[in-house]
Write a structure and sequence with these properties.
The structure is a single chain. This protein is an alpha/beta fold. It has 2 domains: 10-78, 2-Layer Sandwich (60s Ribosomal Protein L30, Chain: A), CATH 3.30.1330.30; 83-247, Alpha/beta knot (3-Layer(aba) Sandwich). It contains 9 helices and 12 strands. It has helices at 14-22, 39-50, 60-66, 86-95, 111-123, 141-146, 162-171, 209-214, 232-247; strands at residues 10-12, 27-33, 55-58, 74-78, 83-84, 101-106, 128-132, 155-159, 175-179, 185-186, 196-201, 217-220. The strands form 2 sheets. It has an 8-stranded parallel sheet. It has a 4-stranded mixed sheet with strand order 1-4-2-3. Helix 1 runs parallel beside helix 2 (39-50) and helix 5 (111-123) runs parallel beside helix 9.
């Protein structure tokens, strides 16, 4: 069923989306109709990849549910937040005499968990949240609301290749700490007073094996009851405030 009122958080049609991408407008995701092929679609997809905007192929019916108008086989979701480049942000933090404190979210797709982590991270003084281009929660009005507006106050970085980005963070002097129940060491037994990036994984699959191998340390929260794990937003909150405690 199509809503009676057209949404104001989407663009549709090849030319408007191409112009939005060229102008640097923040776009959360581009949906392209299955089988769509034209020079304009090719140009649009090239620009989306250049700007590291996620692209998803969907059936025509999905696009028809988003808008009644002639979408020409493509719809883009506008982002309610501005993205920063982590490569630019880290030197700025060091130059300002700050010890970078970054949260890396690995395939956390639940919007409510994403928003809750952002809210806690901002309250704990984290400098940025880093997410992959693909496989992350879409930053929409619901995410901003769940974060209590924190997503408009904390730096948000979206990177196409997290492996390359983690290598950059390590080379910049940040310690990469993976929060995982597979760890042998407890959170408070590690020195987190220096520049640090915490990796938080999805509740379904945890942290990707590749990122676990890249981490400098693996840390866990002790589970003293019969429950084996915590909600990822709760675990992130505990980890963030352990950093706050150690740095005071």
């Amino acid at each position: 069923m199509i809503a009676d009122i057209e949404r104001n958080d989407i663009l549709f049609g090849t030319r408007p989306i191409i112009e939005a991408l060229k102008s640097g407008r923040e776009i959360e995701k581009v949906l392209v109709q299955s089988g769509s092929r034209s020079p304009q679609i090719g140009e649009l997809l090239g620009l989306a990849r250049l700007h590291e905007v996620p692209i998803q192929t969907v059936p025509q019916e999905k696009l028809n549910r988003l808008t009644r108008k002639n979408h020409q086989g493509v719809v883009a979701f506008l982002s309610p937040v501005l993205y920063q480049k982590i490569e630019s942000l880290i030197p700025i933090l060091f130059d300002a005499g700050k010890l970078p404190f970054i949260i890396i979210m690995d395939k956390i797709t639940d919007v409510r968990n994403f928003g809750a982590i952002a809210r806690t991270a901002e309250a704990a003084g984290a400098h940025a949240i880093l997410v992959p281009t693909r496989g992350s929660a879409m930053i929409n009005a619901d995410a901003v609301k769940t974060s209590a507006g924190a997503l408009n106050r904390i730096n948000l970085c979206r990177e196409d290749n997290l492996k390359v980005t983690i290598d950059f963070l390590k080379a910049s002097g940040l310690r990469i700490a993976a929060i995982t129940e597979k760890a042998d060491r407890e959170l408070w037994d590690s020195d987190l007073t220096g520049p640090v990036a915490l990796i938080m994984g999805s509740e379904e699959n945890g942290i990707s094996e590749a990122y676990l191998k890249m981490a400098d340390t693996h840390l866990k929260l002790p589970m003293l009851g019969t429950i084996e794990s915590l909600n990822v937003s709760v675990a992130a909150g505990i980890a963030c405030y352990e950093i706050v405690r150690q740095r005071r």
